[in-house]
Amino acid sequence: MGNADKVKADAKKKEKPVPQEREELIRVDGLRKEFDGLQVLRGIDCSIYRGDVICVIGPSGSGKSTFLRCLNMLEVPSGGHIYFEGADLTDRKLNLNLHRQKMGMVFQQFNLFPHMTVLKNMICAPVMLKKADKTEAAERAMELLARVGLADKAEAYPNQLSGGQKQRVAIVRALCMQPDVMLFDEPTSALDPEMVGEVLDVMKKLAEAGMTMVVVTHEMGFAREVANRVLFLDEGVIMEEGKPKKIFKHPESERLQSFLSKVL
């Protein structure tokens, strides 16, 4: 190799890889929400990128669940804008249902249809809303049930399941719609303590598989281990945000320090 070639080769080794621009999935601009004159959200700005696992923490009454429910317009904002994959969800001319189908939602209280088997609960939305082939929808549902260890419960009814099993079914039911983002509203808060782990394990596997997730949670261990970003909400605003290490080990605001001292 000549000197010129060697110089070029050395220069190439030193070249830093060009950082890939992250894809913004959701952008929230100036989000406000009032209930009967009470300001619950007082101007929230944030971006959620594809592949993010964001945990939203904060005291009760801070606006966490309202923020999450506004993301898919289950609560209609009083002001501001929410952009999902470039579409303004607050635009009244928008066909909201088409965009909402790409957002999976898991609630505190499972919300399974009690008169339907687990399998029928799972294929109902894909068949009715997305006009999916019933056989193909059932095959995908069974694959998902197998992934969370519930394939043997396909023909069971919700009242035959434990709380942890119901919540796992609720998660895979949302996955049956093949969403681009999953929203979790305190998914373990209604569970007995011994059932919390089985639900968090499913959520960890989802995160590892690259699913974009926004999780309102009181499970600080989960937030510390799984999230790539944590938002601390209080009094309807994001008081602090950052990587878990920064939030939990080096909180800047006195309010966050006080909150963590009570929950850790």
Q: State the secondary-structure class.
A: alpha/beta
Strand order of the largest sheet: 6-7-8-3-9-10
H/I helix tally: 10
Number of strands: 10
Please write the string of helix (H) and strand (E) elements.
HEEEHEEHEHHHEHEHEEHH
Helix content: 25-40%
- Please summarize the sheet with the most strands: 6 strands, mixed
Low-confidence stretches: none
- Strand percentage lies at 15-25%
Secondary structure layout:
Elements: H1 3-14, E1 24-35, E2 38-49, E3 53-57, H2 64-71, E4 79-84, E5 87-88, H3 96-100, E6 103-106, H4 118-129, H5 134-147, H6 163-175, E7 181-185, H7 193-208, E8 212-216, H8 220-226, E9 229-234, E10 237-242, H9 244-249, H10 254-263
Helix pairs in contact: 4-5, 4-6, 6-7
Features:
alpha/beta, 6-stranded mixed β-sheet, 4-stranded antiparallel β-sheet, 10 helices
Write up what this structure looks like:
By secondary structure, this protein is an alpha/beta fold. Helices cover 39% and strands 24% of the residues. The protein contains ten helices and ten strands. A six-stranded mixed β-sheet has the order 6-7-8-3-9-10, sandwiched between helices. Strands 2-1-4-5 form a four-stranded antiparallel β-sheet, covered by helices on one side. A hairpin with a 2-residue loop joins β1 and β2. α4 packs across α5. The radius of gyration is 21 Å and the shape is globular.
